[in-house]
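Box 3.1 A note on notation
Throughout this textbook, protein chains are presented in two layers. The first layer is the amino acid sequence; the second is a token string describing backbone geometry. Keep the layers aligned when reading.
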Amino acid sequence: MLKAGVLGAGHLGKIHLKLLQQSSKYELVGFYDPIEDYARQVSNEFGYVHFTSIDELIDAVDVIDIVTPTLNHFDCAVSAIEKGKHIFIEKPITKTVEEAELLRDLVQKKKIRGQVGHVERFNPAFTAVKDMISNPMFIESHRLAEFNPRGTDVPVVLDLMIHDIDIILSVVNSEVKDIHASGVSVISDTPDIANARIEFENGCVANLTASRISLKNMRKSRFFQKDAYISVDFLEKKSEVVKMKDAPENPDDFAMILQNAEGNKKQIYFENPRIEQNNAILDELESFADAINNGSTPIVSLRQGTRALQVAQQIINNF
């Protein structure tokens, strides 16, 4: 078992602590949080060992799980990497692309593993269909949330949209060609609602909308590719696949047939992939343990986390 420690015991940090304690692949050693009174409260309530310094915790573990505010990601990660510890770091990887690139290079130099917490990669609705997504040419994503003061220290692009940026980059095998974007601040000092159009070199276009001032929550993505349409509902954990193929000469009475202007006929088929319910955060943490133990590349590497941040920053710079 890998000895793990958590930096940050806020809302998400407490979830990580609970799951690491439950995991058969980790031994939870303890946590550090800079707010002493709060840290003692968490320790007393849940029984986790509270360390009074970051260095003390780092020295005691094999893996550091960084669940601090984004502004602190870089310094925490460097402290762990310099001591040869593997790092799991919540999204976005760092505040700036320059910091992310430094972490990526440091991890490679130290020959340790690093993974970024882009949890939607482990959402069962996405994992059920990701192998069916092949050369999509148009993608539409909506990630809408009711207002929550937590997370408003960063633009909605880094808070919410970056989930969909990472998903899209993981399925589009092409470099970004151009980006158009707009963002509006309504409640926060940074944009609360944003839209971005990403054009890729291979002709694929992705249209993304993110809002943290909506009246209802929505997390949906739609992937359009030749002869198929794939819908993923990350919130409800549902997927739908609509496929088309050449219609038979004598279709049955209930077959759905489309005919274009040239007279070509296609038959439509609906598939509802089986969704295996899971805890996505536990899965991402345990996949990181597997990568460490097997010497393999993490599912969401620091390189991929850096690329997602690069695109997110390009979007912000286009406002």
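The chain has two domains: 2-121+280-307, 122-279+312-317. The two ends are 46 Å apart (CA to CA).
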